[in-house]
Every structure is written in C-alpha cells, then in structure tokens.
Write a structure and sequence with these properties.
With about 100 residues, the chain is of the alpha+beta class. It has a single domain, classed as Alpha-Beta Plaits, CATH 3.30.70. Helices cover about 15% and strands about 25% of the residues. The protein is built from two helices and seven strands, in the order βαββββαββ. The strands form two sheets. The protein has a four-stranded antiparallel β-sheet with strand order 5-1-6-7. A three-stranded antiparallel β-sheet has the order 2-3-4. The longest helix has 10 residues. The two termini are about 15 Å apart. Bound molecules: iron/sulfur cluster. Iron/sulfur cluster (SF4) binds next to helix 1. Its cofactor is [4Fe-4S] cluster. It comes from Streptomyces luteosporeus. Ferredoxins are iron-sulfur proteins that transfer electrons in a wide variety of metabolic reactions.
Length: about 100
C-alpha cells in the first residue's frame, strides 16, 4: 500500500464482539491495539490506552502496526476484526474486504 498525504490511506479497526471467540490471538499480535477484557472478549484500545467497549468502536491503526493488525484480521478465528479506510469506510482487511 502506498502512503499518500491526502488521508485516504488512514485506517481504523473495530471488532465485532458478537463473533469473538476470546482466544486472544489479536492481543498477542498487536497488544498496543487489542486487549481482552474480563468478559473474555477482545476490544480495541484508544491511542491513550483506554479500552473502547462501545459497540463498533474504532481506533486508528498507526502505520508501524499495520502488519500486525492486518495479520490479526487474517488469523482471527471469529472473522470479526474489521480494518477499514477512515475516509470512505471501505474495509481493506477482514471478512467484508473485497
Ligand atoms: S483474534 Fe478475533 S476471535 Fe480471537 S480474541 Fe481477537 S477478535 Fe476475538
């Protein structure tokens, strides 16, 4: 993916907890982004490390973590990690990616 300065490549990620199996693969791959809560499900974290538990909550994907987040989405057994472009909300990695 090329990096442009028009913001089109900025990505965000969210988790569909309804499908999360709680295995924790995402939190192993990218602990800066994903964390398991005491309910046994994975959630994304804000840039200041706050667990975001609202349904559909998103957090930005920093470029240095993109590979880890992409691998998390690919390996996620629940197929419930969605990575999408901020600009147009088009999913680029995850179950709804083209
Ligand atoms: S990898 Fe997927 S199924 Fe596993 S804990 Fe993370 S979000 Fe849930």
């Amino acid at each position: 993916m090329t990096v442009r300065d028009d913001g089109l490549d900025e990505l965000e990620v969210w988790i569909d907890q309804d499908l999360c199996t709680g295995d924790g693969i995402c939190a192993q791959y990218a602990p800066e982004i994903f964390e398991l809560d005491i309910d046994g499900l994975a959630y994304v974290k804000s840039p200041d490390d706050e667990l975001l538990q609202d349904k559909g909550a998103t957090t930005p994907v920093p470029l240095p973590l993109l590979n880890d987040v992409r691998d998390s989405a690919k390996e996620c057994p629940g197929d419930c990690i969605h990575v999408r472009r901020v600009a147009d909300k088009v999913e680029v990695y995850g179950p709804d990616a083209p």
